[in-house]
Structure formats: C-alpha cells, structure tokens
Amino acid sequence: MQTNGATQLYLIRHAPVIADGLVYGRRDLPADCGNAARFASLRASLPDMDLVLSSPAKRCLQTAQMVWPKVKPRVEDALWEQSFGDWEGIPFADIPDHGQLDGAELAAFTPPNGESFDDVCARTAAIMGTLPAGRVAVVAHAGVIRAALSQALGGVPSALRFEIANLSLTSILILPERQYVVREVNRCC
Predict the structure, then answer these.
(1) Out of 36, 113, 127, 172, which could bridge 85 as a Cys pair, Cβ 3.0 to 4.6 Å?
(2) Are 46 and 94 spatial neighbours (Cβ–Cβ below 8 Å)?
(3) pLDDT at residue 91 in the model
C-alpha cells in the first residue's frame, strides 16, 4: 500500500454501553452489540487496516471484535476514557453544579480524584505521535476521539463541542510533518 508516510486514522466510538444509570467513565461496563446490521454497515465502510488499536475497556474490545472478528486489536491504556474519579458510580444527577465554565475552564476542570479533559488530550497526543504510516483504526471513547480532534485542530477547548455518537466514525489524515486534515467527524454508518 502506498502511504507516502501519512497515517489515515479511523476513530470509532464503542457500541452503546449497557448502562446502569450511573456515571461510568472508567467503569468497565459491556457494550450492547446486538445491532448486527449497524456493525456490518460500519465494517463495509472501512478499508482494510494495517493496525487496529483499542482501549482496554470491555465495551471497546467487544466493538472491535464485532467490526474485525479475525483481528486481535493492540490494547493501549492511553486510550481509556476520562477518569471521573469520585463521581464514577454515582447518579448523573448527583454531580455538583459548577456553574458556567468556558471551554478552557471546562477542559482544565478535574473531578475529585479524576482527570481533566486536558489530561486526556495529553495522553492521546502522545499515542498519536507514535502511530505508524498506513491505515490505523482506534476503537475508543468519545473523550479520546474529542482529544484526537483537539490535536488535529490545534486547540483543546474547541474539541469539547463535538458530538461523538456510539459506533460513529471520525477520520483524520496525519501527514508526515505532523500536520492534520480532519476528513470527517461523527459519521454514523
């Protein structure tokens, strides 16, 4: 395959979580993989991959297995969702109201014993800097995909404005000079 040193990055958000109504972030909940037609549509929209990476989360590994049944993804801890610390496992309604935060304040905000979106962006940027040339798929979380977009856009706060749906595809071309071209965002297959 001719890549000219570029990386074509395909970011896929995991299938819907079988949720319990509580904040889950790093809680390892399973995915609902019952929509075979949606997985088939996603699979048909993708080229063959040179490398498939996944978050260690069960929901991401299950999604990767449904999209590429014959491929074992390389698991990367840096692809975990944001840790919401003490807020994980509590009802969403119990998260304290912090008032109006602008984009930079929201990106820097750290839940008690958790991590900020800025932290997620830093670890995502580090892994993006090590990707090989070719076609690379990443099965991860909305926060990680937004963090990859922040790298491509050159600014963290703006990436928080993107909606990233379950089983959606976001595609970024990474040129050899580490310049980025966002090809598509949140395409539902």
Answers:
(1) 113
(2) no
(3) 96
DSSP 22: B
In this prediction, residues 156-174 reach a mean pLDDT of: 95
Is 132 domain-assigned? Answer: yes
Question: Do the domain assignments include residue 174?
Answer: yes
Long-range own/partner contacts, residues 30-34 (CB < 8 A, 24 or more apart): 30/58, 30/59, 30/62, 31/58, 31/59, 31/60, 31/62, 31/63, 33/62, 33/63, 33/66
Token reading at 46: 């993708």
Distance between CA atoms of residues 74 and 61, nearest Å: 10
Instruction: Tell me the CATH number at 112.
Output: 3.40.50.1240
Give how far Cα 59 sits from Cα of 39, 63, 65, Å: 14, 6, 10
pLDDT reading at 3 higher than 70: no
Q: In sequence order, which residues have a C-beta less than 8 Å from that of residue 46 and are 6 or more positions away?
A: 10, 67, 137, 169
- Tokens linked to 54: 């996944």
In a domain, 2, yes or no: no
Task: Give the structural domain span for 126.
Answer: 7-188
Look at residue 22 and tell me if it is in a domain: yes
What SS3 state is found at 28? coil
Domain count for the chain, please give it. Answer: 1
